[in-house]
Amino acid sequence: MRRILTWLIGIDMVLMIASFILGGKVWLINTQIGYLSAALVLGASMFSYSQMVYGRVADGTAVPGDERDILDKMEDPYDLYAEESPVEVTQQLKEAIKEEKQRMKQNRRSAYQILKDSRASLSLLRLGAYLLLFVGFFYLSKSQMLHIPSYLFALTLPIVLIIGLLLTKKGAHDEAGI
Fold this sequence. Notes:
Elements: H1 2-23, H2 25-59, H3 70-75, H4 86-106, H5 111-117, H6 124-142, H7 148-176
């Protein structure tokens, strides 16, 4: 997280200098409002999601599953295409259909369960960051200083930067065998 924050601050300094030189005060204000609000939204989203994951790990609800990867689980949730005899497969299929029908009937979720599952979406920090994004846009629009190209560039820059940093970090972990 410290690495991402360092890069965000460094790129913001470069962005401030470049926007002031290229476009003056209007570009500087547009890029700063766009960049800071997008960075806050991304930071708040990452923080609330990590808190939710840590909470689930602490509760024991997020336990390691089987060795199959996520695509196998999505394509074959009941492991029907495993190396087994056809009789066992049809029996398992019938049982899986019965279990799924029962689960669908009993899967009436309460409002509390829905709220508990959407905790990361309804984080006050994240909602505050989105509010700042909207207020900044409407301020620029109302004061007639909105310059769309510089604002959109500044909005997309933190997204590209964070995704790039996370992918390079993942690539370093993959190379190290982690």
